[in-house]
Amino acid sequence: CHCQDARLFRPTRVGGSKAPAGERMPKNSEAVKVVVRCRPLNSTEEANGNYRIVDMDNKRGSVSIKRPDSNGQEEPKVFTFDRVYDWNSLQETVYNESAAYIVDSVLKGFNGTIFAYGQTGTGKTHTMEGKESPEDLRGVIPRAFHHIFTAIKTVANPNLEFLVRASYLEIYNEDIRDLLAKNNTAKLDLKDNQDSGVYVKDLSSYVVKSVKECDKLREFGHKNRRTGATLMNIESSRSHAIFTVTVEQCETMPDGRASIRMGKLNMVDLAGSERNYETQQMTAAEHRESAEINKALYALKECFRQAARVRAKGRALSFLRDS
């Protein structure tokens, strides 16, 4: 099958946060949104005679997939999502419609997560990071930097102060590494306590005061991330990477008291799922990488499946955790 696997984009926000008016997600929307993006055929695929078997209806939010060997005798399979973006979609459109409202919520003191999920080579890193130039190719992460600091600069309240911090980690073969640390080979531990919840012990966090400083950290961390060539992708991400921006606000009230609120934005570029027969000629270490990637993505899928099942039965969602 020469179908181009969609880029799955799952934004999550805490219930109760307000989404701005316009083309962004409505404020009464579900806490979890699934958005699918499909990339165009690349030059290698076109040279091989591959063709597209996916059609997308942007207005209905549906994706139809044709069986290539059915000779038109079989009806396409149709799937519906919160939004879909075809091969002509722009980075700016994807961000404005499906990511900006989450950043707005973070600036109001809520937590939000945006992550890209899909097969290797489908363009997850392009959607999340993109390219620095030209500007229209910038992905979700650099656009979120601009969004946050532009919003801070426009605040007219002289009694409101902001503190923005950033961290960047990767999960490689189930080991957590700090991409911003001088010794980025050290393995970090995942901890949990009653006060702060789940956190990574000894993960570095840097105070950032501008978009430029955020970009510098992202570029530094990206160079330390594990990548490798497979037959499906010449520069495949071999680890899950999480860039976290924490926005703290302190407002001095008329009576002198301090009102503090904090929002955290997690932006995740997951490693791509793959089948071993599609990534032949791999070494033993690369096979282990592939197995660990698929195992982690399967665990993530199970968490969402269980969450959907619990919600469908009308029960409260219990805490889900898996490695």
SSE pattern: EEHEEEEHHEHHEEEEEHEEEEH
Number of strands: 16
Poorly predicted regions: 1-23, 229-235
Determine the number of helices (DSSP H or I, runs of at least 4 residues).
Answer: 7
Largest sheet: 9 strands, mixed
CA radius of gyration: 21 Å
Inertia-based shape: globular
Helical percentage: 25-40%
The rounded distance between the terminal residues' Cα atoms is 32 Å
Structural class: alpha+beta
Beta-strand percentage?
25-35%
* Average pLDDT reading: 80
How would you concisely characterize the structure shown here?
By secondary structure, the protein is an alpha+beta fold. The protein has helices spanning 43-47, 91-98, 100-107, 124-128, 140-153, 211-224, 284-312; strands at 7-13, 35-37, 54-57, 62-65, 77-80, 83-85, 112-117, 160-172, 175-178, 190-193, 197-200, 206-207, 227-228, 236-237, 240-252, 258-269. The longest helix has 29 residues, at 284-312.
